[in-house]
Write a structure and sequence with these properties.
Elements: H1 26-32, E1 36-40, E2 46-49, H2 51-55, E3 59-60, E4 63-64, H3 67-79, E5 83-89, E6 99-108, E7 113-120, H4 122-158, H5 163-194, E8 203-206, H6 207-224, E9 228-233, E10 238-241, H7 243-259, E11 266-274, E12 277-283, H8 291-294, H9 306-311, H10 318-328, E13 332-338, E14 342-350
Parallel strand pairs: 9-11
Antiparallel strand pairs: 1-2, 1-7, 3-4, 5-6, 6-7, 8-10, 11-12, 12-14, 13-14
Helix pairs in contact: 4-5, 5-10, 6-7, 7-10
Bound molecules: adenosine-5'-diphosphate.
GO cellular component, one term: plasma membrane
Region (Disordered): 1-20
Subcellular location: Cell membrane
Length: 371
């Protein structure tokens, strides 16, 4: 049996404009608001609550669950002043995180009703925290080469009479300046693509040309370690996107394959059709990535071995750029790796025209083993 208490009276029993009905039009306004909305009557009972307010656990039955919010509503009812505040509600279900709300509480009508609007701030807080972390990381990354440059400049000044030392330190200055340039370039690329802006010049991109161009740009570094870059797979495939961004992403993958592989190994870049997508993979015979780090390698500035990354001129942003380029194209990037054996990174990109088919092209550049 269900006990019916007086407060459970159906709203239709209540005369218009009494303290238990909403002022005219309020219900329709509340229905279109994106925030969690709650209307309390003069006895603090919930007259109306949006489904979001119930889902977040702010309201149960006809009770407002947050004591802090209830106190605020009472203050507003007493003096009629609109109040704003921020507060946190513990996850009301197991495993659920706490939710931070920005609330605005205002008097409603002349019957002691109070309107509570609560905006979920969790995502905004998370984004702010990520941004703060990012700025701290960038400052730290910039400080190292800038500090080194300043020290080297001092050393050169002191060694002005020693041309051999001056030449040596000037070379190191060039090296640090190059590091700074790479970092700034990567930061610019990253900020351009992760802003969620549309791809600059989308169109039909021949995969063979992207592969050829990316290999071309990595050849010098590969040759210095006697690493052979090999292009293979299906020729004539086309994807939808921006050629320059795709070359940047693929070049980053090949750069890493070279940087994290021992001398005299092979790096294979291969394309293949896979239904609606084209898969472009870069496989190396390098040091591999520990399983525990696999989930984090696409994070900005995450490195398995910071010293090794810096020694190879890495900025810690390469894979974050790859991930964002893939996402901006409606694609994704996956990784397989085994420590001591090697790694394979696979870009999956939407095929031009919706289906991946090889189109023989007279203008396509022949793929060949590059040294
Ligand atoms: P970095 O500039 O440090 O190379 P990335 O974002 O490109 O930054 O890569 C992040 C980290 O992932 C690297 O520091 C390295 O530890 C690891 N990593 C990336 N690619 C490879 C690879 N092919 N083989 C082994 N480790 C890799």
């Amino acid at each position: 049996m269900v006990a019916v208490r007086p407060r459970d009276r159906r709203r239709t029993d209540i005369p218009e404009n009494s303290d238990s009905t909403l002022p005219q039009g309020v219900a329709s306004v509340l229905a279109v608001l994106p925030s969690s909305a709650v209307v309390l009557d003069r006895d603090d009972r919930v007259l109306r609550a949006s489904s979001a307010a119930r889902a977040f656990g702010l309201v149960k039955g006809d009770h407002l669950m947050a004591a802090e919010l209830l106190a605020l509503a009472r203050q507003v009812r007493r003096d009629g002043e609109i109040r704003e505040s921020e507060f946190e509600v513990a996850g009301h279900k197991f495993g659920m995180e706490a939710t931070t709300f920005a609330v605005r509480v205002a008097p409603l009508g002349s019957h002691g009703q109070v309107l509570v609007l609560a905006e979920d701030q969790t995502e905004r807080r998370r984004v702010e925290a990520v941004r703060r972390d990012f700025v701290a990381n960038v400052s730290h990354e910039l400080k190292t080469p800038v500090g080194a440059l300043s020290l080297l400049a001092e050393t050169i000044q002191d060694a002005a009479e020693d041309p051999v030392a001056v030449t040596r330190f000037a070379g190191r200055m060039q090296h640090e300046a190059a590091r700074l340039t790479y970092l700034v370039q990567d930061l610019i690329t990253l900020s351009r693509i992760q802003g969620g802006e549309p791809i600059p010049t989308p169109g039909c991109v021949p995969v063979d040309e992207v592969v050829h161009e990316a290999i071309d740009r990595c050849n010098t570094k590969a040759a210095a370690k006697e690493i052979v870059l090999v292009a293979g797979g299906t020729e004539g495939l086309r994807v939808w996107g921006d050629d320059e961004l795709l070359v940047t992403a693929l070049r980053n993958l090949i750069d890493n394959a070279v940087a994290y592989s021992p001398e005299s190994t092979r790096v294979v870049v291969s394309a293949r059709p896979a239904g609606e997508v084209v898969e472009v993979s870069v496989s190396d015979q390098g040091i591999g990535i520990p399983e525990s780090s696999l989930e984090r390698i696409f994070e900005r500035f995450f490195r398995v071995d910071a010293a090794r990354s810096r020694a190879t001129g890495g900025t810690g942003l390469g894979l974050a750029i790859v991930k964002h380029v893939a996402v901006a194209h409606g694609g994704e990037v996956a990784v397989w790796s085994k420590e001591g054996s090697g790694s394979t990174f696979t870009l999956r990109l939407p095929a031009f025209g919706g289906t991946a088919i090889a189109v023989p092209s007279t203008t396509s550049i022949p793929l060949e083993a590059a040294k």
